């Protein structure tokens, strides 16, 4: 575990988190940041140092890496999950549960390689996720050293996200720290997402290694800076930034991401205003400005198809969320009923 201690601000604390806390809260507990999630326990860091928190029961909503908790003063127990400033989550399983990936990020590094992994529709998906969370996306193009034509990849990204930074790197080289430095300042939190094998862990290790050599803070091979690069962990770069390396995801299903889609597909949204019908589905509808743009070659048909696909997914999730809410409400009523019976019984006993 980290032997170092950090101030709250070094841990990424923002004043806005305190809005969620009362004076009583500060008397009962103290804030700590989740740096590791295990099956029945959490690793946390706070101004008091490192601690392990045993989770006694399933906590709803599921706590994730990057979360801020209020821990009990006397024992490392969770009093409360502090309101998240951002959450990257995906939809998992047939029940469409929201599965948190990382919380309280400043930046999302969307990692893809200059090879067969590169896929504009997948990038649009990740961009939607970042915009939905209100987190700045940066597209990191790895394996640029193995590619003879990096320019064509940069051009392709520009067609879907002209305002998003796109940084080609060789993740195995210490030189990659420099073009990424703007997002890796002290107290900044960045998560790496992308398919398996694109170089997320390689980049994480290089950033730890290169920065360590620059500052001389951590010896080569020292376990301190390296050991949390496991499945669900967050660790500090010697620059003071926090990195969350995630395992590659085979599929990334998004939830109800209307805000994110509006931002990721702002060109389509702008055109849609000119469609004849305000509820135009941009799919064979009469007077559709978006389809006209595709026919005229001003809009990529692939992009429109991907937009529709994400919309369908979001609608499907919204439907099943409603079903689940009804289900939960039903069981909630049963639970409350059972609790009242227990209380009444208890009342009689005493
Ligand atoms: N030449 C070169 N090789 C790279 C680069 N980035 C990653 N690699 C290699 O690609 C392989 C996979 O890299 P990882 O860092 O394990 O990929 P990952 O994204 O963490 O994969 P998962 O953990 O499965 O999600 C390793 O052999 C790396 O050395 C790069 O920019 N240039
Ligand atoms: Mg990895
Ligand atoms: Zn339309």
TrEMBL record:
Pfam families in the record: RsgA_GTPase
GO molecular function, a single term: GTPase activity
Domain CP-type G: 95-252
InterPro entries referenced in this protein's UniProt entry, alphabetically: G_CP_dom (IPR030378), P-loop_NTPase (IPR027417), Ribosome_biogen_GTPase_RsgA (IPR004881), RsgA_GTPase_dom (IPR010914)
Subcellular location: Cytoplasm
Binding residue positions for Zn(2+): 275, 280, 282, 288
Domain EngC GTPase: 103-250
Keyword flag rRNA-binding: yes
Sequence positions that bind GTP: 142-145, 194-202
One GO BP annotation of this record: ribosomal small subunit biogenesis
Cofactor needs: Zn(2+)
Annotated SUPFAM superfamilies: P-loop containing nucleoside triphosphate hydrolases (SSF52540)
Compositional bias of kind Basic and acidic residues: 320-331
Chief location category: cytoplasm
Ranges of Basic residues composition bias in the record: 337-350
E.C. no: 3.6.1.-
Main function: One of several proteins that assist in the late maturation steps of the functional core of the 30S ribosomal subunit. Helps release RbfA from mature subunits. May play a role in the assembly of ribosomal proteins into the subunit. Circularly permuted GTPase that catalyzes slow GTP hydrolysis, GTPase activity is stimulated by the 30S ribosomal subunit.
Similarity remark: Belongs to the TRAFAC class YlqF/YawG GTPase family. RsgA subfamily.
PANTHER family documented for this protein: SMALL RIBOSOMAL SUBUNIT BIOGENESIS GTPASE RSGA
Self-association state and partner proteins as the record states: Monomer. Associates with 30S ribosomal subunit, binds 16S rRNA.
Protein name in UniProt: Small ribosomal subunit biogenesis GTPase RsgA
Gene that encodes the chain: rsgA
């Amino acid at each position: 575990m980290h032997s170092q201690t950090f101030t709250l601000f070094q841990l990424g604390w923002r004043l806005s988190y305190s809005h969620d806390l009362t004076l009583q809260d500060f008397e009962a507990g103290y804030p700590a940041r989740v740096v590791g999630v295990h099956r029945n326990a959490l690793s946390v860091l706070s101004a008091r140092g490192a601690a392990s928190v045993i989770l006694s029961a399933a906590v709803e909503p599921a706590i994730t890496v990057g979360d801020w908790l209020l821990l009990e003063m006397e024992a490392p127990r969770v009093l409360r999950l502090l309101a998240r400033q951002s959450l990257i989550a995906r939809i998992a399983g047939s029940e469409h549960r929201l599965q948190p990936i990382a919380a309280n990020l400043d930046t999302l590094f969307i990692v893809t390689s200059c090879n067969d992994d590169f896929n504009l529709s997948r990038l649009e998906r990740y961009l939607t996720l970042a915009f939905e969370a209100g987190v700045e996306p940066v597209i990191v193009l790895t394996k640029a050293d193995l590619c003879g034509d990096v320019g064509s990849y940069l051009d392709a990204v520009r067609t879907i996200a002209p305002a998003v930074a796109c940084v080609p790197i060789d993740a195995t080289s210490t030189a990659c720290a420099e073009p990424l430095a703007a997002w890796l300042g002290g107290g900044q939190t960045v998560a790496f997402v992308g398919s398996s094998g694109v170089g997320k862990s390689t980049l994480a290790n290089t950033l730890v290694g290169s920065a360590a050599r620059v500052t001389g803070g951590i010896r080569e091979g020292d376990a301190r800076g390296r050991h949390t690069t496991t499945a669900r962990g967050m660790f500090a770069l010697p620059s003071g930034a926090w990195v969350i390396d995630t395992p590659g995801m085979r599929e990334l299903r998004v939830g109800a991401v209307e805000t994110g889609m509006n931002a990721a597909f702002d060109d389509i949204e702008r055109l849609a205003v000119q469609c004849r019908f305000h509820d135009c589905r941009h799919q064979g509808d009469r007077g559709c400005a978006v389809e006209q743009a595709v026919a005229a070659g001003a809009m990529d048909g692939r992009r429109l198809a991907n937009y529709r696909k994400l919309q369908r997914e979001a609608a499907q999730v919204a439907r099943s969320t409603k079903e689940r809410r009804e289900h939960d409400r039903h069981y909630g009523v049963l639970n409350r009923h059972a609790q009242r019976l227990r209380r009444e019984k208890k009342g009689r006993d005493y």
